[in-house]
Amino acid sequence: MFLLNLFYKNARINGCGKFCVDKDHDKIRKWTRLPSGKKSQELLRLMAVACGGTDFVPHLPYKLEELLRNPFESLAIEFILARHAPGDRSPYHPAITGNGVKIYLPGKAETIKKKDYRYLPEKLKIWKPKIGDGNLNYFLLGYGHQLNHFNDKDNFDFSDTFHRIVRFHTLFNPNAHVTNPYDYLVRLHYKAVLKSRYPGQLIIQLLTHLLKKYFSINTEPWLERTVSFEKEWENLLPWQKRAVVPIIDTVRHVYDASPNIADPLNKRGVMLLDRPDRFCTPKSFPCWITAMDRLLPNVQFVITLSQKADLAFPNAVRRRRLKLPVIINRPKQKPAPRLRSRDILLIDIDSRLPNLALMKLSSHFKMQGKRVILAHRDDRIKGVEEVYASCIFFHSKTTYHVKKLREHYGNGLIVGGSGIDVKLRLPKKIENLPADYSLYPELKDRAIGFLTRGCPFKCPFCIVPVKEGRVKQVSDLDALLQNRLGKLILLDDNILSHPNCNFFLEEMVKRNIEVNFNQTLDIRLIDKEKAKLLKRIRPSNVRFTRRVYHFSLNDTGNLDLVRRKYQQLKFTHSDNVEFICMYGYNTTLANDLERFRFLRSLPGAYVFVQRYQPIREGPPPDLSNFFDDHADDHIDELTNILFPQNMKSMEKYYRWLSKLYAQTFGKLHTGLVDTIFRYNNRQSKGRYIASLARLKPV
User: Fold this and answer.
1) 212-238 exposure pattern, b = at least 16 Cβ within 10 A, e = fewer
2) What kind and span of H or E run contains 516?
């Protein structure tokens, strides 16, 4: 984001007027210098209000009504931004857009309506900045002339919903605090030096280089593994501390705003500085400006300076220019292909894997000499008379997609799959055909299919007893592998329950194939012979990039049995053993905790959680007794159970649990919220807390 123009009316000091950045074709001046004084200070504040976001600026430590000259009229601010992709916009959206903010009593802010704009060019696209949680997009920093830093332990966890204003609140309130410098250096050192995280390494290397070069600070100890930053800070001279405080605060906020960017310091944005010449001595001022210029090569600066400081402003920096973003023309969409009426169209609505039923339908129609086309659910193809769509899952999104397909294809559409009717099956003559692998070229050397179907157990939440019935063999390895494939995605519901299970496993061992047991294995059915065979097979994840065993554990009914069977497999901590754990059906929090605690005790085991999705005409979830009187203790213990891998999956369970807790008790469990954002998406924590706070107890 760059700020190009600002128009204002009813500002207390400036009244009505405008601000325009010096622009030369496709470039703007990087450093815009304004004369010091109340007028320029207010102008910086108007810029901060414009770019800060209407959801955020009312929470500044400042009475916004003090910006109004006439308190009975609103302060209108219209502005033009240059927006950068992908941070502030889609690559195909307009790069130069306008927007407006009005401030009125008692210090409220809202977006100006389109019909009320007075100063923006008529043809300019009006686009309200989508600031979201305020931490990533439309990056804005601002500093007043007086900076005080925290001396206590600083807070870096984004709990404050309005964290964004911390980046520019000193422009409005001289008593507002900036980052505790040595506390943040400890945090940066941990990431960059102790944990060797790349963005942190890049930042600390540049930071130490600039501070050493321009402020004569010995930063070599900062890169050692053992260092006391409190002592290092005490060793700095007063003028060095004064100069470094805004630089470290800048680094903190740029890094915070760029969690997924390899080089955060190249981020684009706007920085507003009121009298930065007061941050340092007159002698070091040119060095301070040069250091900031090198630290943030792509940030636009608007600053106020005394006349003396302006004369000392470095000429090399004065000449800097920034290139404006350009819009990329959206590639022309190819018109939907028009098929011949006798062609067959197949649509995969919601499969997460290649759809086996469609692959067999393709074989059937190709044997009749017909051309078969596989389409995406959102494609709208004309001219075809026969359309077959497969729907695996039963939920609202699937229902929506089926409705849209029916509207387009009408009576020519036939929809099947367990998401529509669990008893609906392909005709036997089609079911027995080999799959057409050309329909899904992304399978490459992977085979997919069933050796057996069915399961002897009748779990009420499961579709298999209704759809497949008792376990039975439906194919063999020759048919699945087609004499050329060496990797198998096995879709069997419960292969270990088939009487010929050991024969199937022996065949896999002899052929030396890799197998992804996609629907998991029933560990309760393991015996010594099966355990030996499974250890000789090469089990894999679905992409066949690493060795993984897949089991499931949906309740606490057989934990002792599961432990004995697990011991027969002789797994160690170096193995990857994934347990699929369903939640949200009929277990309690105490049950879930017991499962996770149990799995953590098994060497090599980790969890992949899946929320219960009712099947068509299946039982609804029963969570009436989910929490007991020890819910807080259970959650405290749960958040301390750390698996050796895939904790990202546990975050799904934590979020579900956090929401259910808030709905049940009408309050947040702060420890659980802290755990959710322990490693990932920290910048969204404040907005998440706010969203839970709005939930009403059920």
Assistant:
1) eebbebebeebeeeebebeebbeebee
2) strand 514-517
Per-residue b or e along 240-270, where b marks 16 or more CB atoms closer than 10 Å to that residue's CB? bbbbbbbbbbbbbbbbbbbeeeeebbebbbb
- Domain with 221, as residue range(s), is 179-250
Tally of structural domains, the chain: 3
Residue 448 pLDDT grade (very low, low, confident, very high; cuts 50, 70, 90): very high
pTM score:
0.83
Identify whether residues 96 and 11 lie together within a single domain: yes
Strand arrangement of the beta sheet that strand 413-416 belongs to:
372-376, 344-348, 386-390, 413-416
Residue 215: φ, ψ to 5° = -130, 10
Please check whether residue 221 lies inside any domain of the structure.
yes
Instruction: Give the separation between CA 599 and CA 402, rounded to whole angstroms.
Output: 40
**Exposed (0-12), middle (13-18) or buried (19+): which is 625, by Cβ within 10 Å?**
exposed
Q: In what order do the strands lie in the sheet with 446-449?
A: 446-449, 487-490, 514-517, 538-539
Structure tokens of 127? Answer: 């686009």
Burial class (CB in 10 A: 0-12, 13-18, 19+), 108: middle
Same domain, 191 and 105: no
Q: In whole angstroms, how far apart are CA 154 and each of 234, 242, 249, 250, 436?
A: 18, 18, 12, 15, 60
CB 524 within 8 A of CB 561: yes
Give the model confidence (pLDDT) of 367-408 as tens digits: 999 999 998 888 888 878 889 999 888 777 888 888 888 888
